[in-house]
Amino acid sequence: MRILLAAMSLGIGGAETHIAELAKQLVRRGHDVTVASAGGVYENEITQAGVKHVFAPLSTRAPLDMCKALKILSRLIREGGFDVVHAHARIPAFLCGLLHRKYKFNFITTAHWVFDTRGSLKYLTNWGERTIAVSEDIKKYLLDNYRVDEQNIFVTVNGIDTERFSPGVTGKYARRELKIPDGAPALVCVSRLDRTLSAPTVTVRGLLEAAPALARAIPDLRIVIVGGGDAQDDFRELGAIVNRELGRDAVIFTGARTDVNELLAMADLFVGVSRAALEALATGIPTLLAGSEGYLGLFTPEKLGDAVRTNFTCRGYGSTDAKSLTRDITDFFAGHGTPAHEGTSARLGAFGRDTVIKSYSVTRMTDDCERAYASFKRPSLPHRRVVMSGYYGFGNAGDEAIMQSVYSSIAAARPATEITVLSKSPRATREKYGFRAVGRFNPFRAVYAIARSDALVFGGGSLLQDSTSTRSLLYYLAVIKAARFFRRPVMIYANGIGPVTHPKNRERVRRAVESAAAVTLRDEKSRSELRAMGVARTDLTVTSDPVFTAELPDEAESRRILAAAGIDRARPFFAVSARDWGDKPEFFDELARFCDLARAELDLDVVFLPMQPKGDLETSRAILAKMTSPAVIPPSELSPRELMAILARAEFAVSMRLHTLIFAARVGTPSLGVVVDPKVTAYLEALGMPELGTMEDFTAERALFRAIEVSQRRAELSSRLRSLAEEYGNRAKEDARILAKLLED
Question: How far apart are CA 139 and CA 152, in angstroms?
């Protein structure tokens, strides 16, 4: 889509950062994005990401500037051919609203804050044909004050880039620049320093008033104020008075900065609200929620509901004052530097980051905007048919999850597409998932489906390999040949390649890949393997496993799933995913002994998770028979969604299967892998999870040592996995976008 984002400016501020992140994400998803604004510190950042920027004086109500901005917007919209014009803030929305009457474009706005509705101000606000509210309470404000049609309101979040704001960012350079000694307690507040009534300066004023008392209670404390504005000189003067009184530079002003992630990373505590608070939480920094509209204090699990309801603004919860700030900041820093304090900080930081990753990602924010854009009627797409070929219909949970994820991704990326699955059990596939399916071993139906299709989607999964058998490989190559015979384009979709050991098979795979219209791979090792086979094409795109786009069950559904599986939610547990892999009795003896040791040492129950009904179930029962302690084996076959719900509650997972590792990563649960295949090693390395060796050298004691280590670091590892899962999910969506383009061409 061609999208115009109209914003006041790209300076430091929550709404401005939201716009910059949205613009970058939309470009990454293949959209053509132009931003019109008065410019600012984020202008260079978005243009480097491929966003076009046009200057327009949209940050002032001065009549002459508004006329200039209206003229610039008019030319842009008249010549730009935009599918959507998306305005942020009152002035851009008002001017775009005037132009909408003339040009009749698809017009959408975002409500970042609540506006003054007194007198004529209410009538200067235009919310467009669709409105995106950044919290539920802003949605209520729109309904109560403007009577916006609820059907036209979409609720989103302030999406945070959890790679840029992460515990991996070091703050040592910021400390060095600001001359803050290592170990000295540091408090950071990010705020605009403007004279306008809407500027969130109450917290800064409260901190300056509280600074003398805080400095006396917390020796060597530094209070760092990040942000610029037309009142920053006034605040600097107030800070200088405090520093003279204390005889040292306790209060430090940095001005407007774009390296906020570095400044947050050096903090022991963040004080503030809204987007800046979410960025601090994503960085793993304990956060005290205090703003112009309310005060919640230190963010803990008990405060989660109140914080979410107000989009972390504290709107309606008391007021911020020096007394409250002094009390809560002093309490937080009590015992600073002791193991107890460090432990509390680590737990609060991990909880905060986990909260952001679960509910406040840039992926969620961009998804919500795309959903709002898609609500406008667009020219209907031509009808297309695709056939999906993979290891579908065999009951393997990993491959069933791939099938569901690929199917859903294609349907979302290109709605006017009829999808047919080649399945071993077409009736079960139709009844269980509602998918159109034909028998993969019925040559007449399968070939007919391919002949009438517009493209063959081959994968995902590890289909091009001969470790299972050459016969299996020849079947899949025959499916590709059938598509080529009927001149249908083939997309090799998120495949894992290999191992392919026989020289003739390697040549067959090379020819098949070279003949495909598009090729995407789920990992870098697959690309290396194709290069080693002699594949010369330069467009081998590495995306990710489709399962990283799988939809997860909510809390209520998860509780029902655990109860049905016979798992006691009051007891912590770890999961074991075992499979039959030849005659290896010594390995299974050791695995059973590990389960007993881990249960006793870590006080965790053991839950077996069969991924393939027949073989895995029998193997799990055989291991349980060797154990001296009890374990749970769910009484019925589990769907991928049910498996992920259980894994989400596990302390960690021990797995011989690749897709158990992927399911666990999708829900943020650490895993330990037994290496039975090179693809297991590849994903363990990518996820940063430990190996337990091969079946030949596996020992219960070494596995127990690794399990204890993972259990002790669970919060840190889980946070990292959630961040990776978000990144991989974004990559996995690229497969369907490539297919959609192929179908249009």
Answer: 11
Q: How far apart are CA 261 and CA 170, in angstroms?
A: 9
Residue located via tokens 């139709």: 430
Rounded to 5°, angle at Cα 384 from 378 and 385: 145
Record the tokens describing residue 692, joined without a space: 């337990």
For each of the domains in the chain, give its residue range(s) and CATH number, in order of start. 2-155 (3.40.50.2000), 172-360 (3.40.50.2000), 384-542 (3.40.50.2000), 555-728 (3.40.50.2000)
- Spatial distance between the Cα atoms of 130 and 453, rounded to a whole number of angstroms: 37
List, for residues 267-277, the tens digit of each pLDDT value.
999 999 988 99
Q: What is the mean pLDDT of each run of 10 residues along the chain (745 residues)?
A: 94 85 89 94 88 94 94 94 93 94 94 69 78 87 84 88 85 92 94 71 94 94 92 93 94 90 95 94 96 94 89 90 96 93 93 87 87 81 93 94 94 88 93 89 96 96 92 96 97 95 96 97 94 95 94 81 90 95 88 97 96 89 96 91 95 96 96 91 91 95 96 92 90 93 88
The CA distance from 577 to 620, in Å, is 8
Please, which residues have CB within 8 angstroms of residue 238's CB and are 6 or more apart in sequence? 208
At 520 the three-state DSSP class reads strand
Burial 41-55 (b: 16+ CB within 10 A, else e): bbbeebeebebbbbe
* DSSP bridge partners of 188: 224, 270
Nearest by Cα to 128 from 100, 156, 151: 100
**207-226: string of b/e by CB count within 10 Å (b at 16+)?**
bbbbbebbbeebeebbbbbb
pTM score: 0.64
Residue 239 structure tokens: 């800070």
* Count of Cβ atoms closer than 10 Å to residue 428 Cβ: 13
Neighbours of 352 (CB within 10 A): 26
Quote the CA–CA distance of 357 and 365 in Å, as a whole number: 12
DSSP state of 438: E
Task: List pLDDT tens digits, range 113-137.
Answer: 776 656 555 556 889 999 999 888 8
Give residue 347's pLDDT. 93
Half-sphere exposure of 236 (CA within 13 A, CB side): 12
Distance from first CA to last CA of the chain, Å, rounded? 16
Between CA 568 and CA 562 the distance in angstroms is 7
How far is it, in rounded angstroms, from Cα 138 to Cα 127?
Answer: 13
User: Both tokens of residue 680?
Assistant: 């297991």
